[in-house]
């Protein structure tokens, strides 16, 4: 009898599979979705491999096999196994990254309508509440709906009735949307029939020659394309894709923000009309299905999207591009598997013999370290574009002139406005010439904190250990951790004083101050409050690019890939936000943000100016960003990392535990810390440094108290593999943040 090793949808870390027999009437193959009995329930699964024998007895049979047959190929199964092992995530979670849209949660648990006699031993009140959920002739109800309707107080009683068999479960398996039911998408014209390539500079030509040679060799090679803002990295991507397609292979282009996808798609569709598919999390279910199955059918040569587009079923794959590779959004940090698209892209390319291009003006320090040292293991080849260019003829252009304003001096000289005198003057001149400006502040809302002037009490979120931010547009206090909202207070809840003041800066206050200084000026705001949907984000950019507003005020979103030639002034309202977070990457992020936002100015024919306001003009991240000196920043930062044994000179794993009970969370963190230290001593793993447990920052998020433990060293997994990590703990391998 043949058997199948199945990855089951269950919270089990690592690559463990379960053995099932294949019924005689059923045909299954690796990569096929199945439904299997798992304990007292039915569960979704994916067949990983087949075998003719097993030592397990008894073996349960597979209940159902998907009629579509295999939906994952051997390369995808291998990649999912690697992701599961490297990031210590459940194997099925890793497979879900690559499964067709709608695959998650296909098994639906139902509760059948009970007979009145079956509930004879149940209290009359509970019996009435249960039977009321099955009105008329209704014979079944989804268990999750039943639980939600009954409420929290009846959950234990419901569990008991299900265990005893008083209530009976049944299971459905939803069908996937078949490719045959989707409207066929006709391929567009062959590529190079669209927008002609730009003339390339010698540096671009050299980069393209290197990439083309790697594509021709059809073996894995990775490049770091470091180019100053406006140096023509996108043109290198476009021409590299053309070379890839000419060699009968296809390419994936990743961007760090969904908001950047529309403008990026337009660029690539202009060069490859009809050949570009778009994948990101804000597509509607029908759009996602249509694009995914169209890619599977081979209708597209190029896939553009956010990090999830990396797992598109695009074959044969020849090129993967990560634009702005330094951005933290390439790391999935809110659910398993907590993968980094940059790391997984390189693993995928190694499997299929593809080429990887990582592009950035301000590369991740660890990535640049690999490219700068020829002897580094896993070396990247460094390609540099040191000069800003413009137009189809690649005309050399200067970078924006950057000025740093010391806001301490402004205060000493009696100027207390949020705009320095220099920035006010520059805004007046820019607006007077009919040019455009961008103002950057890395915080939403109007005021960072709301505080009582008498007792000092700060309004905080009831579920998170963070101050609430006042948003004038909605007249609400908002938590930027959990989005909890409440009305502003007229009196202090602690001392009842009416002397409430709003402190700090946010995008809304910047807009208000700007409009007060320049009445009638057209201003657009671009942050996550305004850009709640993709259409809104695209609309803001489009309107600004068309000249419907002279000033754009925004958060980090304005620093990423925004190209508006008529912008001649960028103002950083306060460079210090985020600079002093308790995270070893805070200086790197500040430097990257400042360089990137300064790069938005002067991309047309008129020279640009960037003005950075700060209370720490002597900080090396600020001073070197003013000179756009990545080399100088890298030397400072890598020396600091070497002294402190931080990445890239070590690897890190972060363990996080959260619970609504503060004492329980602390006790569990202490227990885990003891278990790790005992194994560290037992195995003599002194090269693995164990830090903590300690409170995370912020301590409380969404009502849950958080504690964390950091493992640091050349191989922190050596210790982690010696200890069973129980449910409830989050394991984050190579974390992008340690707060």
Short description:
The chain has 739 residues and is of the alpha/beta class. Helices cover 30% and strands 24% of the residues. β11 (276-279), α9 (285-296) and β12 (302-305) form a beta-alpha-beta unit.
Break the fold down into its secondary structure elements and pairings.
Layout: E1 3-8, E2 18-21, E3 32-38, E4 41-51, E5 64-70, H1 74-87, H2 91-96, E6 107-112, H3 124-131, E7 140-142, H4 143-150, H5 155-164, E8 169-173, H6 202-217, E9 221-227, H7 233-246, E10 250-254, H8 261-271, E11 276-279, H9 285-296, E12 302-305, E13 317-323, H10 341-352, E14 355-360, H11 365-372, E15 381-385, E16 388-390, E17 395-397, E18 401-406, H12 407-412, H13 421-432, E19 436-440, E20 449-452, E21 469-471, E22 476-478, E23 485-486, E24 500-503, H14 507-517, E25 523-526, H15 534-545, E26 551-554, E27 567-572, H16 586-598, E28 609-614, H17 620-626, H18 630-644, E29 651-659, H19 662-683, E30 689-701, E31 704-713, H20 717-720, E32 729-733
Parallel strand pairs: 9-14, 9-15, 10-12, 10-13, 11-12, 13-14, 18-28, 19-26, 19-27, 25-26, 27-28
Antiparallel strand pairs: 1-2, 1-4, 3-4, 3-5, 6-7, 6-8, 16-17, 20-24, 21-22, 22-23, 29-31, 29-32, 30-31
Helix pairs in contact: 6-7, 16-17, 17-18
């Amino acid at each position: 009898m043949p058997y199948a090793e199945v990855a089951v949808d269950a919270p089990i870390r690592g690559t463990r599979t379960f053995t099932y027999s294949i019924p005689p009437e059923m045909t299954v193959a690796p990569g096929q979705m199945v439904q299997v009995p798992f304990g007292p329930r039915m569960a979704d699964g994916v067949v990983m491999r087949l075998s003719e024998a097993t030592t397990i007895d008894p073996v349960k049979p597979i209940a159902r096999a998907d009629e579509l047959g295999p939906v994952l190929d051997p390369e995808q199964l291998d990649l999912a196994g690697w992701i599961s092992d490297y990031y210590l995530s459940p194997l099925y979670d890793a497979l879900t990254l690559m499964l067709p849209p709608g695959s998650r949660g296909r098994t639906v648990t139902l509760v059948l309508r009970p007979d009145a006699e079956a509930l004879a031993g149940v209290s009359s009140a509970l019996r009435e509440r249960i039977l009321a959920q099955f009105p008329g002739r209704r014979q079944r109800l989804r268990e999750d709906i039943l639980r939600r309707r009954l409420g929290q107080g009846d959950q234990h009683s419901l569990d008991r009735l299900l265990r005893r068999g008083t209530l009976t479960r049944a299971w459905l398996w939803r069908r996937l949307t078949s490719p045959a039911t989707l409207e066929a998408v006709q391929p567009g014209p062959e590529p190079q029939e669209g927008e002609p390539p730009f003339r390339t500079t010698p540096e671009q030509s050299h980069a393209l020659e290197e990439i083309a040679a790697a594509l021709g060799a059809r073996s894995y090679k990775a490049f770091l394309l470091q180019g100053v803002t406006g140096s023509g990295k996108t043109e290198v991507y476009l021409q590299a894709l053309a070379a890839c397609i000419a060699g009968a292979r296809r390419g994936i282009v990743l961007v760090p923000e969904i908001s950047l996808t529309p403008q990026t798609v337009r660029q690539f569709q202009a060069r490859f009309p009809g050949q570009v598919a778009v994948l990101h999390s804000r597509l509607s279910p029908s759009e996602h299905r249509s694009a995914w199955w169209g890619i599977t059918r081979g209708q597209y040569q190029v896939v553009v999207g956010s990090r999830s587009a990396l797992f598109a079923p695009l074959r044969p794959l020849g090129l993967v591009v990560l634009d702005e590779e330094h951005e933290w959004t390439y790391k999935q940090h809110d659910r398993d598997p907590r993968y980094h698209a940059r790391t997984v892209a390189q693993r995928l390319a190694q499997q299929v013999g593809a080429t990887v291009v990582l592009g950035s003006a301000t590369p991740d320090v660890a990535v640049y370290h690999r490219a700068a040292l020829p002897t580094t293991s896993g070396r990247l080849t460094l390609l540099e574009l040191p000069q800003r260019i413009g137009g189809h003829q690649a005309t050399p252009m200067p970078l924006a002139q950057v000025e740093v304003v010391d806001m301490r001096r402004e205060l000493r000289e009696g100027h207390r406005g949020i705009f320095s005198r220099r920035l006010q003057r520059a805004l007046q001149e820019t607006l007077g010439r009919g040019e455009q400006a961008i103002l950057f502040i890395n915080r939403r809302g109007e005021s960072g904190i709301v505080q009582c002037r008498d007792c000092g009490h700060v309004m905080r979120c009831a579920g998170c250990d963070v101050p609430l931010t006042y948003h004038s547009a909605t007249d609400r206090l908002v938590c930027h951790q959990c989005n909890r909202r409440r009305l502003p207070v007229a009196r202090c809840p602690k001392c009842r004083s009416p002397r409430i003041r709003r402190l700090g800066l946010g995008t809304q206050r910047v807009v208000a101050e700007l409009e007060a200084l320049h009445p009638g000026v057209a201003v657009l705001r671009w942050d996550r409050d305004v850009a709640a949907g993709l259409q809104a984000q695209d609309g803001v950019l489009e309107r600004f690019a068309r000249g419907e507003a002279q000033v754009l005020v925004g958060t980090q979103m304005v620093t990423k890939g925004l190209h508006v030639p008529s912008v001649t002034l960028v103002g950083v309202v306060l460079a210090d936000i985020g600079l002093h977070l308790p995270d070893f990457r805070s200086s790197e992020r500040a430097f990257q943000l400042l360089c990137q936002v300064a790069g938005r100015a002067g991309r047309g024919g008129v020279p640009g100016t960037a003005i950075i306001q700060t209370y720490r003009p002597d900080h090396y991240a600020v001073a070197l960003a003013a000179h756009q000196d990545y080399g100088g920043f890298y030397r400072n930062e890598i020396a600091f990392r070497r002294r402190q044994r931080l990445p890239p000179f070590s690897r890190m794993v972060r363990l996080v535990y959260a619970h609504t009970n503060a004492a329980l969370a602390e006790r569990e963190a202490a227990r885990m810390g003891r278990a790790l230290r005992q194994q560290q001593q037992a195995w003599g793993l002194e090269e693995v440094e164990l830090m903590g447990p300690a409170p995370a920052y912020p301590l409380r998020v969404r009502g849950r108290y958080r504690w964390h433990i950091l493992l640091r060293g050349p191989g922190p997994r050596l210790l982690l593999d010696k200890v069973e990590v129980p449910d409830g703990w989050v394991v984050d391998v190579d974390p992008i943040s340690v707060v």
